[in-house]
């Protein structure tokens, strides 16, 4: 089991309660963004591009608690920005834990080691460290040489101090499945509880608007990565979401499953897509034109999306929507499959790193030489 | 939500291919709006300009018909059936409040703030990386901009 039994039980009983109450739309995870400020400047990020006066603002602990209570989801993910830059983050986390929310504090871990003493280990708290691949891949992804080493040091320190530590890996065009699999080995060896992996998505406001995987390439990449998986690998994603990434399941988006709250209010419709803001959670749920989102809607902004914030909640909803769904999921949890797949192994063996993506250029001598010639010729 | 013009590469791609068969998604074309002062002669121009302001990654300045101004980040817009029941929501540069401005009250709009994400693509980072590497630098990185 990749999450504590108490957490699985809390989530299962919460979802069943929503179903019994006949709620068609219900939140599963609150994405709480207490600030947009960050100590990294990743090209693919859509959260750090705001003007300075916006980046200086932050939610108060009281605003965070009110959002958690208003929303009612059993899990709270705290992305950002970098949450550890918020001076009251320990108070926010402690307050959410006191409310028995399962908190995933998303961090790039640059400050994790030095701020660890401000937090208390708890079954309700997990540090979700963002590591986008092995050293070269991660450093290029976050636009900072040395970022990987600091993040891994933070992970080891948090594990040693008795915290739950999970990881989050986002993949872009140019990702090498063999390297991602080696990355999983590295993470498990560092003692992380479980891992999450998801394709990147074009944030409207991110500096980088290219290098995002289409669905065909995503499915091939994730089939290569997640088939023939090792027993040592633990994932904290729903098994059916994992199959969705591999092209074995088809889910529509559930944009209300992971609602986002920030200094702007409740983001319409989802964590990734900005189409305005609601002042209350009720307004978000009742006045958002949900039919305009998701691949089925024909909205070009949703056509390519396969990310967990839109589709993992769909997988969870599926397994509580019918007896068949429940039994299928229960079997997958009790008897996890390694997804043996000779064709996927062949795909993995024959995969050649591409030189078009920015994340692999450092690894290729040809690419390095081409790049050096281009630079020296400037 | 971007205007159709801003989304046109993706829309063109989807017109020609099934989304399930696309290998790499078309990049989005970002207009250079910094410093732009749109004409607001017709209702359609007002709506289009405010949609672009909503999509913009920097501050804007709105001048109301009574001569008063608000400069700040336009984070939301609510579009109704007419300009009198449509409004934008702005967080001014100097205070933490949300100011509503009705479309019909707007006399002028200017994209006065810097586009904070322009020119910061992965390609730009890779180019900068190799320039610095060739110059012998270590611990090469792109730091977030100073906030003060």
TrEMBL record, chain A:
It holds the Pfam family Radical_SAM. Gene3D superfamilies: Aldolase class I. Residues 20-236 form the Radical SAM core domain. Its cofactor is [4Fe-4S] cluster. The keyword Metal-binding applies. Keywords: Iron, Iron-sulfur, Metal-binding, S-adenosyl-L-methionine. It comes from Edaphobacter acidisoli. One of its GO terms (molecular function) is catalytic activity. It comes from the Bacteria. This is Hopanoid biosynthesis associated radical SAM protein HpnH. InterPro entries: Aldolase_TIM (IPR013785), DUF3463 (IPR022563), Hopanoid_synth-assoc_rSAM_HpnH (IPR017833), Radical_SAM_PqqE_MftC-like (IPR050377), rSAM (IPR007197), rSAM_sf (IPR058240). PANTHER family: PEPTIDE BIOSYNTHESIS PROTEIN YYDG-RELATED (PTHR11228:SF22), RADICAL SAM DOMAIN PROTEIN (PTHR11228). The lineage of its organism: Bacteria, Pseudomonadati, Acidobacteriota, Terriglobia, Terriglobales.
UniProtKB/TrEMBL annotation, chain B:
This is Uncharacterized protein. It comes from Edaphobacter acidisoli. It comes from the Bacteria.
């Amino acid at each position: 089991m990749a999450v504590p039994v108490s957490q699985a039980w809390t989530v299962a009983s919460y979802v069943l309660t929503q179903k019994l109450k006949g709620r068609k739309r219900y939140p599963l995870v609150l994405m709480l963004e207490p600030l947009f400020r960050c100590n990294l400047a990743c090209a693919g990020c859509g959260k750090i591009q705001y003007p300075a006066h916006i980046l200086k603002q932050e939610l108060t602990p009281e605003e965070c608690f009110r959002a958690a209570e208003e929303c009612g989801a059993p899990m709270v993910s705290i992305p950002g920005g970098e949450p550890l830059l918020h001076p009251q983050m320990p108070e926010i986390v402690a307050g959410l834990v006191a409310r028995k929310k399962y908190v995933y504090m998303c961090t790039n871990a640059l400050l994790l080691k030095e701020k660890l003493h401000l937090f208390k280990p708890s079954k309700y708290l997990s540090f979700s460290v963002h590591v986008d691949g092995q050293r070269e891949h991660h450093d290029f992804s976050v636009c900072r040489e040395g970022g990987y080493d600091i993040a891994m040091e933070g992970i080891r320190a948090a594990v040693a101090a008795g915290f739950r530590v999970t990881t989050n890996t986002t993949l872009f065009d140019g990702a090498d499945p063999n390297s991602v699999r080696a990355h999983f080995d590295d993470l498990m060896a560092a003692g992380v509880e479980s891992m999450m992996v998801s394709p990147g998505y074009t944030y409207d406001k991110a500096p980088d608007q290219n290098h995002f995987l289409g669905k065909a390439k995503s499915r091939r990449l994730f089939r290569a990565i997640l088939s023939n998986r090792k027993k040592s690998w633990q994932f904290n994603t729903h098994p059916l979401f994992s199959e969705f990434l591999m092209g074995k399941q088809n889910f529509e988006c559930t944009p209300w499953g992971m609602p986002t709250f920030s200094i702007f209010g409740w983001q319409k419709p989802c964590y990734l897509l900005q189409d305005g803001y609601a002042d209350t959670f009720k307004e978000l749920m009742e006045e958002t034109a949900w039919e305009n989102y998701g691949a089925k809607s024909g909205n070009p902004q949703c056509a390519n999306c396969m990310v967990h914030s839109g589709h993992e909640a769909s997988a969870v909803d599926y397994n509580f929507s019918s007896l068949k769904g429940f039994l299928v999921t229960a079997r997958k949890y009790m008897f996890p499959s390694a997804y043996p797949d000779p064709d996927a192994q062949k795909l993995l063996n024959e995969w050649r790193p591409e030189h078009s993506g920015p994340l692999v250029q450092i690894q290729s001598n040809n690419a390095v030489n081409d790049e050096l010639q281009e630079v020296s010729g400037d | 939500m971007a205007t159709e013009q801003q989304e046109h590469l993706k829309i063109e791609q989807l017109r020609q291919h099934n989304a399930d068969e696309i290998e790499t998604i078309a990049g989005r074309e970002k207009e250079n709006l910094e410093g732009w002062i749109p004409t607001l002669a017709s209702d359609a121009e007002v709506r289009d300009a405010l949609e672009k302001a909503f999509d913009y990654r920097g501050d804007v300045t709105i001048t109301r018909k009574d001569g008063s101004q608000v400069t700040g980040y336009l984070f939301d817009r609510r579009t109704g059936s007419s300009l009198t029941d449509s409004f934008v929501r702005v967080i001014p540069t100097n205070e933490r409040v949300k100011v509503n401005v009705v479309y019909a009250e707007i006399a002028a709009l200017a994209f006065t703030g810097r586009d904070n994400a322009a020119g910061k693509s992965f390609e730009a980072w890779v180019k900068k990386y190799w320039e610095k590497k060739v110059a012998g630098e270590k611990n090469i990185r792109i730091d977030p901009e100073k906030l003060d």
